[in-house]
């Protein structure tokens, strides 16, 4: 059991620098992501006195300090002459999404990356996101866009996200505690919000050019967007909904509210595995077929012997119970006990790919739409 499972504190001690800004080496107090395996990535705060415990062994944080991010840390497995290893990675929105403490369902990178490019997100963008949830997409937005206005109506989740964004130095996020479906998106000084109001201002000037709604009822929030979106440019919205009935209802309201170019998209990502396959000669293939035939024949004979032995056992009441056993190893064209490593320079290889049969990336339908509030003022 890894140590972060005991708690979800991901507060780095180096709070003056964002753990998401680039660094070369692992330092005391850093938030680092430990890659144990592809689906086991754990956030840790580097502390020289601590150990990172896995079922394969314990890794001292001390052994990580001073090494480059991405380094492999190896330990000898207790009582065995083998090594276990982990990689220590610097946080990125992509890795954070795979390792974050889940408070809700989250948006994963195949969707978030597609949505951001469809909404033309750039450092010039001001984006609205509701709800914040576990802050997975918020981290991706924060890296790309100029400013993110994020809204969450669940008070505990709001507080947790507030603390997390502060710990991670995501100063371009304004988080507001709000039910956007009933109260809209305007951020006022009297609201529970992290917004820093300039002197004299009583409400934030939002002028968003992109909107992302991950809500159970986006159709209630859509009519309230006009107040906070930019009036003089093309604004994009994406609604993230798991059911087609929700898509239907959202589209009806988007049309009513003057949004156009409506499109529904589903991301069907599949992993392609790339590896090298040994080029075999025709003689090898023929020998393999002959071996299959030979083993089939041997199997028939062995079964017959076993059957005879059972009958004999029954007759002698189990006194002669030594029965023929099946051979353990199969045909190996390189000789018994030989293992050829992929890419071994003594053999010829070709590059092959295999696509996984299942689609694992579908989480929701993405409904996109665009709107220009005041066409006469488009810049
Ligand atoms: C599925 S989660 C969002 C996950 C988020 N996109 C992420 O990547 O981590 C939906 C969140 O929306 C919040 N929510 C639902 N209705 C809301 C509303 N009317 N106003 C604000 N937040 C709302 C929920 O409390 C929940 O935390």
TrEMBL record:
GO MF, one example: tRNA (adenine(58)-N1)-methyltransferase activity
Q: Where is this region: Disordered?
A: 310-340
Specify one Pfam family.
GCD14
Tell me its EC number(s), please. Answer: 2.1.1.220
Q: Name one GO biological process term.
A: tRNA methylation
Keywords in alphabetical order, please: Coiled coil, Methyltransferase, Nucleus, S-adenosyl-L-methionine, Transferase, tRNA processing
Q: Which reactions fall under this protein's catalytic activity?
A: adenosine(58) in tRNA + S-adenosyl-L-methionine = N(1)-methyladenosine(58) in tRNA + S-adenosyl-L-homocysteine + H(+)
Using the record for this protein, list the coiled-coil segments as residue ranges, or answer none. Answer: 275-302
Give the CC-aspect GO terms: nucleus; tRNA (m1A) methyltransferase complex
- Compartments reported by the entry: Nucleus
Q: Which residues bind S-adenosyl-L-methionine?
A: 152, 179, 214
Q: Where is the signal peptide?
A: none
Q: Where is the tRNA (adenine(58)-N(1))-methyltransferase catalytic subunit TRM61 C-terminal domain?
A: 85-370
Q: Which InterPro entries match?
A: SAM-dependent_MTases_sf (IPR029063), TRM61_C (IPR049470), tRNA_MeTrfase_Gcd14 (IPR014816)
* Assigned protein family: Belongs to the class I-like SAM-binding methyltransferase superfamily. TRM61 family.
Descriptive protein name: tRNA (adenine(58)-N(1))-methyltransferase catalytic subunit TRM61
Origin organism is Zygosaccharomyces mellis
Gene field: TRM61
């Amino acid at each position: 059991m890894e140590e972060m499972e005991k708690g979800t504190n991901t507060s780095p001690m180096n709070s003056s620098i964002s753990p998401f800004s680039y660094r070369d080496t692992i330092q005391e107090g850093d938030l680092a992501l430990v890659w144990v395996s592809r689906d086991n990535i754990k956030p840790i705060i580097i502390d020289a006195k601590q150990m990172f415990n896995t079922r394969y062994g314990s890794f001292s944080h001390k052994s990580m300090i001073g090494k480059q991010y991405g380094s492999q840390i190896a330990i000898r497995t207790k009582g065995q002459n083998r090594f276990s290893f982990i990689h220590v990675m610097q946080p990125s929105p992509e890795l954070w999404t795979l390792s974050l403490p889940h408070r809700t369902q989250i948006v994963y990178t195949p969707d978030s990356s597609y949505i951001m490019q469809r909404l033309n997100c750039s450092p010039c963008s001001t984006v609205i996101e509701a709800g914040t949830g576990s802050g997975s997409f918020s981290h991706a937005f924060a890296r790309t866009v100029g400013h993110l206005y994020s809204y969450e109506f669940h008070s505990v989740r709001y507080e947790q996200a507030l603390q997390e964004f502060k710990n991670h130095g995501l100063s371009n996020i304004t988080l507001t505690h709000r039910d956007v479906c009933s109260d809209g998106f305007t951020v006022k000084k009297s609201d529970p919000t992290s917004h820093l109001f300039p002197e004299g201002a009583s409400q934030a000037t939002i002028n968003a050019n992109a909107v992302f709604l991950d809500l159970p009822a986006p159709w209630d929030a859509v009519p309230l967007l006009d107040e906070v979106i930019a009036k003089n440019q093309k604004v994009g919205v994406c609604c993230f909904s798991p059911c087609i009935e929700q898509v239907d209802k959202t589209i009806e309201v988007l049309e009513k509210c003057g949004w156009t170019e409506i499109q529904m998209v589903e991301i069907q990502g599949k992993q392609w595995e790339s590896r090298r396959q040994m080029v075999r000669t025709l003689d090898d293939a023929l020998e393999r077929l002959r071996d299959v035939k030979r083993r089939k024949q041997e199997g028939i004979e062995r079964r017959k012997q076993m059957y005879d032995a059972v009958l004999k056992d029954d007759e002698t009441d189990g006194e002669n119970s030594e029965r023929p056993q099946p051979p353990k190893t199969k045909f190996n064209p390189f000789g018994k006990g030989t293992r050829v490593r992929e890419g071994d320079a003594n053999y010829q290889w070709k590059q092959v790919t295999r696509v996984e049969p299942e689609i694992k990336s579908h989480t929701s339908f993405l409904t996109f739409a665009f709107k220009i509030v005041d066409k006469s003022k488009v810049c």
